[in-house]
Specification:
The protein is mostly beta strands and about 90 residues long. Helix content is about 0%, strand content about 55%. It is built from no helices and 8 strands. The strands form 2 sheets. Strands 1-8-3-6 form a 4-stranded antiparallel beta sheet, with no helix packed on it.
Length: about 90
C-alpha cells in the first residue's frame, strides 16, 4: 500500500421508487424535486434542495439498502452522491 486511499465519487439520479445499495464510506441525499422523498419509511426530505448525509468513521463501510419512495405527484428527483474506496491500492 502506498499510503493513499483510492476514492471514487459517483452520482445517481433517482426519479422513481427503488432500492439503492450504499456500499460506501459516505452517502448524501438531495431532494431536487417538488414532492417529498421518504427514505427507509422514516426519513422525509421535503422539496427545496433539502439534503441529508451519512459519513462513516475510518475503516467502516456503510452497507445499508436504502428504500427510496416518492410521496405524491410532482417532479420526482433525488440526487444520491456516494464516496467509495478501494482499500487495495
Amino acid at each position: 500500500m502506498n499510503g493513499l486511499i483510492d476514492a471514487r465519487t459517483d452520482m445517481l439520479l433517482v426519479v422513481e421508487n427503488k432500492q439503492v445499495e450504499s456500499n460506501c464510506i459516505s452517502i448524501g441525499f438531495r431532494n431536487q424535486g417538488t414532492t417529498n422523498v421518504i427514505i427507509n419509511d422514516s426519513l422525509v426530505l421535503v422539496p427545496g434542495d433539502k439534503t441529508f448525509s451519512i459519513n462513516q468513521d475510518e475503516g467502516y463501510i456503510d452497507r445499508t439498502l436504502y428504500n427510496i419512495k416518492f410521496d405524491g405527484a410532482g417532479i420526482k428527483s433525488l440526487l444520491i452522491v456516494r464516496v467509495n474506496v478501494n482499500l487495495e491500492c
